[in-house]
Design brief:
CATH architecture of the largest domain: Sandwich
Number of domains: 2
Mean pLDDT: 91
CATH topology of the largest domain: Jelly Rolls
Strand order of the largest sheet: 1-22-19-24-18-16-17
Shape: globular
Number of strands: 24
Low-confidence stretches: none
Largest sheet: 7 strands, mixed
Distance between the termini: 47 Å
Structural class: mainly beta
Radius of gyration: 19 Å
Number of helices: 5
Helix content: 10-25%
Order of helices and strands: HEEEEEEEEEEEEHEEHHEHEEEEEEEEE
Strand content: 35-45%
CATH superfamily of the largest domain: Jelly Rolls
Amino acid sequence: MTPAMDMTARIVRYGELQPCRTAFIDAHTPGSNQKENFTIIGGGVSESADQHVHISLPHGFNIGAAGQPPHCRNSLHSHRTAEVFFVLSGRWRFFWGRWGTAGEVILEPGDIINIPTGIFRGFENVGTDYGMIMAVLGGDDAGGGVIWAPQVIEDARDHGLVLGENGKLYDSKKGQTLPDGIAPMPVLSEEELKAFPEPSALEVLPRHVARYRDLSAMAAKTPVTVIGETGRLPDRPGFEVELVTRGSAQTTPVTEPRPSVLMPVFGHWRVVWEGGSTILAPGDTMSVPEDLPVTLEPSMSGEAGLYRIRGTQDPAGETWKG
């Protein structure tokens, strides 16, 4: 039996999230300098020592979030492992390519995107209010950091931030300099940049983007696998993402062989386990231990949708199929 008090440390409430405003190299760059980054489960890919990690237990994947006011953007970067986002609030434009011009898509609450690995990507809040997107990164170490487009590193240097080859940020506005023996992170050469594909929206959208309304219709009676080997967006990025709705809520106990994570996007959800229960609201994150039976159902009327993430034994490797 898992006592209720033990589960408290595995629940992160939306209102208790601790932001970092200096997480990445573009923290001073105009247009990107108002964003907030959150590391919820796992160490993530933050380049700042100021980043707070809410839950450090390994899950086989990382959970994070980005909060941004209107017109604020996250600069072009790439990852070595999977990066999946779903929109919690606001209206967001995701774009990709060397200069961010290869393709784009607009996503709204509940919509989800599995951004192909090895492609430069960025995102911008194009709504009228502060918005939040939730992120799942493959692997416990999230692939060893971020690969920035050359212009991002150059722009950051002009505004006082230098990224060392050790993956740490140094802020000249605070009098910081690179330590002895640490060189600046080198920018990618033109030859290296050729390895980053430039797929069009027509190539990316069918296999990598799913709309919440479509998914909720599919999950009307049973949960639907969104990302996974047999998912609506077929992939094996080291984890699976499943959507549960009011009609497919599981009122009999469900046990997972590995730690899983519950993330409501619509409605309030009651989670019950031996020894306790809790109510989750949109933006809350709950880590469920392996082999713990839990029941899951909406606690109020109205729209109800929840993403469940579970680790798999697949390596968190390349996801772009070409």
